[in-house]
Amino acid sequence: MASTPVESKLSNLSINGDLLASAPNLRNNLSLLSPQQIDLAKMLLEKNQSHLFKHWPDPGVDDDKKLAFFDQVNRLDASYPGGLASYIETAKGLLADSKAGKNPFDGFAPSVPSGEVLTFGEDNFIQFEETGIKEAQNAAFVLVAGGLGERLGYNGIKVALPSESTTDTCFLQRYIESILALQDASYRSMQGEFKRDIPFAIMTSDDTHSRTLELLKTNNYFGMNPKQVHLLKQEKVACLDDNDARLAVDPQNAFTIQTKPHGHGDVHALLYSSGLLKEWHDAGLRWVLFFQDTNGLLFKAIPASLGVSATKKYHVNSLAVPRKAKEAIGGITKLTHSDGRTMVINVEYNQLDPLLRASGYPDGDVNDETGFSPFPGNINQLILELGPYIEELTKTRGAIKEFVNPKYKDSTKTAFKSSTRLECMMQDYPKTLPPSARVGFTVMDAWLAYAPVKNNPEDAAKVPKGNPYHSATSGEMAIYKANSLVLRKVGVEVDDPVRQVFNGQEVEVWPRIAWKPDWALTFGEIKKKVSGKCSISQKSTMVINGRNIFLEDLSLDGALVIGCIDDAEVKVGGSVQNKGWTIENVDFKDASEPEKVRIRGFKINKIEQLEKNYSEPGKFSLKP
User: Fold this and answer.
1) Element holding 266 (H helix, E strand)
2) Side-chain half-sphere of 147: how many Cα atoms within 13 Å?
3) Do 422 and 87 meet the contact criterion of CB atoms below 8 Å apart?
4) Which residues, in sequence order, are CB contacts of 619 under 8 Å at separation 6+?
5) Nearest residue to 544 (alpha-carbon basis) of 516, 572, 521, 569
6) Which end of the chain is more exposed for a tag (fewer CB within 10 A), N or C?
7) How does the average pLDDT of the chain come out, rounded?
8) 397: left (phi over 0), alpha (psi -120 to 50) or beta
9) What is the mean pLDDT of residues 593-605?
10) What is the DSSP letter of 131?
11) Would you state the pLDDT for residue 8?
């Protein structure tokens, strides 16, 4: 007697009867499914996921939703290294460890890793900067930009937020202009041997992909060749309902698995699967630099850090800042296991102190004679050597050691308050590296390298006094402070700041100094652009937009906006005095102001300025 289509499909499933009996509604709908979908169904049943089919009606009802369910399962399976079965198995193990209270650092002893500590403007800093500029044309940059600005009180994507209000330059524009300036500086430093465009990859998410693309297209990619830019979209991962790693059904749709972001560690798998790494390697590139979406100071630290990687031949170089003991920022730590394994990784601050106490350091994480913890603060910016990076990803396919953080209903740890998921972090890449890998760090002053924008005004105002606010307010003021201190270092007399309160945050207000990256990327370049006796008052604003602008005996007390094309050279000096631009307080609850203004707590009133733009080739002098 001939078998029915369903029986034929059942034989293809090769599932024992008991397993199939757990999902009678699936059995009734098998005739709808393709062979590939049946394979996925078999995998789900084998992994104890029969509950996903519990509410399926008979064939003919909601068939389109059933097929859409398998489309989603297929996406979840394809986007995770090892597939969805591997995700479920990993989740079971990590959830069991979490329930048992297992310490991921059991058997490891912490010690201080080796790295380079740099001070801005010192001889070795300048040397590393020069090396880094030469190496820049051998680098690719990767921006992790999957987040929205909701946590900041801003409705758009974070990279569209202005980094400062003097020029209204958004973060993405700042980053692209910095990469282009590095590209040109590297070409010039190599005496024009050959010109290579620096590739720029951006990891987006469902939330940010279309808006990032729109921001780029609307602004002509901020001057970058569109062929240099690659967008890689991160997929979400399945949520988990219980300690048995049963996948969570979306409460709004019984035919959909609930999903959440997996974390920025996905960037490694995306780069690997996209083929970009091989493309970059074949083109002769040597470095990949990873950075996050709202640190307006980052590129001041890039040239010297890249110089450290090249000089020290680091496979992995983590950028870091001095860190106070017990400060709420992860510490870069060397961990040595009792079985001989070693790794240099970021250890979260709330894990570092107990780990030290359990390893023979009775006082835990304490400051040393420098006034800082010997474990530098991780700022999630990495420089990886491309060759060893590809070798490692060929083994792992970009999978990063994951963790799970379920919120339990009570101390029995038998049920979750809400669904959880596996997460991974970009900076955990070194966890799988062999002991022979050269993993180090580069420490720079926080004023030069680190001012992330990640807290909304209300949360920032609650930060204990003396701790960084990490808000739009503090992030903007940090740019003015860094530019002021850099100019001081080359001999400009810059007035001390005044302290003001915006959105409940007391910050230092320095002169509002901003320049385009192509004016000067390094200490050495700035030194060449400033001469004589220059001074800038605290109330002043200075905007420099042009590569060949030189400050010579300039006394500024007001606002100066100066620009020129590449074929013009402008010397600016004399005394510039006017009413300038003032800062006006804005309440973050004032709905009459745009969000981007409200979240920083102030706006700039442009009352009077000296503004001059040189659009013709030639040599010019501006001396009022």
Assistant:
1) helix 266-274
2) 18
3) yes
4) 568, 569, 570, 571
5) 516
6) N
7) 93
8) left
9) 96
10) H
11) 53
